[in-house]
């Protein structure tokens, strides 16, 4: 007798359930680079990751730093930089409330990220309060290449996959008969872009963070409006009072 597979939804993790305060992930590396001017961190870090990408097998962040040590970074320095990168990533993470509230305890969480599963699980627990979530299914390029989906479909029937990437979370899973929904709430709204163009880039990011942390899935017209111009006026006035 064939086992009945559970019917679940699946969720991408980064830029779907949680995201960074900064828009460009390279800014995380750049901030560490500025704190260690004699290490040439950013170049070495990106070269080490590129070298592992060429090998074409899944890896985790620890292997990136082993590669850096083999490339000339002192082992103790590499360990310290690894700890600093993980701490920096944690410090800039914020939840996307609208998506987080839709995750059910039985849903699958799937990531292409090079962070190991236990680190991603900890970020979801601490940032999104998803303490009850199942262990993260993690595989470099697994979503993008499509290699992860046949393995998952052996055990589950996926009703809908939610994610932010048009290829890895859209076109590829649809090839396997999975319905997909693209979520792009992390992008700056038209109002936030306007604030940024006025030279107030940090204020635009603060408004984006407030919107992502606050707006629920069922937010109405008023809530969405308040997350734009009205919130901008309040934040601007708060800044004026503070300074």
Keywords:
five-stranded parallel beta sheet, 243 residues, 12% strand, flat, 12 helices, Rossmann fold, two-stranded antiparallel sheet
What does this structure look like?
With 243 residues, this protein is of the alpha/beta class. It has 3 domains: 7-14 and 97-182, HAD superfamily/HAD-like (Rossmann fold, 3-Layer(aba) Sandwich); 26-91, no CATH class; 190-242, no CATH class. 54% of the residues lie in helices and 12% in strands. The protein has 12 helices and 7 strands. Helix 3 (61-70) packs antiparallel against helix 4. The longest helix has 22 residues, at 221-242. The mean pLDDT is 90.
Overview in brief:
With 243 residues, the chain is α/β, with parallel strands linked by helices. Helix content is 54%, strand content 12%. The protein has 3 domains: 7-14 and 97-182, Rossmann fold, CATH 3.40.50.1000; 26-91, no CATH class; 190-242, no CATH class.
Taking the alpha carbons of the first and last residues, their distance comes to 71 Å
Q: Shape from CA axes?
A: flat
Q: Strands across the major sheet, in which order? A: 5-4-1-6-7
Q: What's the name of the CATH homologous superfamily of the largest domain? A: HAD superfamily/HAD-like
What percent of residues adopt helix (DSSP H or I)? 40-55%
CATH class bucket of the largest domain = Alpha Beta
Number of H/I helices: 12
Name given to the CATH architecture of the largest domain: 3-Layer(aba) Sandwich
Instruction: Compute the number of structural domains.
Output: 3
Largest β-sheet summary: 5 strands, parallel
